[in-house]
Amino acid sequence: MTIAVSAATGQLGRLVLAALKARGAAPIALARTPARIAGYEARAFDYTAPDAAALAGVEVLVLISSNDFNDRAGQHRSAIAAAKAAGVGRIIYTSVLKGEASPMTLLAADHIATEAALKASGVAWTILRNGWYTENLTGNLGAALDHGALIGAAGEGKYAAAPRADYAEAAAVVALAPGHEGQVYELAGDTAFTMAELAAEVAAQAGKPVAYVNMTQADYAKALEGFGLPAAFAATLAQSDAVVGTAGALYDDSQTLSRLIGRPTVPMAETVRAALA
């Protein structure tokens, strides 16, 4: 089976390639700059102008969502059209937890549109609705330690997060095995935690005081802008954070992810440990 992985130089794409390789596959890496990729057959593939020729001979495409928020749904539709033109047999798409039911309206909109395009494409599909990556919350612990605070707008809301590697492993499992066609999987970590619990874990491991400081959605958006994020993206992240607390946007206890990968998901404490290291 010939499997290709798009966005192969990204944080998730690299891990999906590695998970496939660990299972004996020889995946094709698709990226805007294939020269950056070593150890895999690499082909040029740009979401803004995807070339069906890059997908020649591909049976399964792992379509990792774009991190370019400029017409992201349009980019995905173009990639799906290219896959169909190339005769790809199945597309696996990394969507958002809860899909059309997600209260993260700003973040989820592109994913909802992509799911609809995929289902209308006539190509067999599998949808992986990925929950939050724990690294989204541990990526800037240095600043948290410097200031003694983690900030956000999630209140007491729970994140059923797991590290990217767990989601990548699920993508590899689904790509390599039959029987996942037409399936939608809600994927999340086994054990949910609040931001206050995350802060307490960081403090315990680092041996320094760290507390969670909850903010209003508007103030959190302003803070993110102050860190250099574009206003629209800051607003999207702040709205997503707020509905973690008010609507359980990133909570799921189905344990579908751990069942797919055949083991428990990696607990938050281990991701904190890796981040602090």
Automatic annotation (TrEMBL):
A Pfam family of the record is: NAD_binding_10
This protein's superkingdom? Bacteria
Q: What is this protein called?
A: NmrA family protein
Species per Swiss-Prot/TrEMBL record: Rhodobacter capsulatus (strain ATCC BAA-309 / NBRC 16581 / SB1003)
Q: Where is the NAD(P)-binding domain?
A: 8-171
- Please list the coiled coil stretches: none
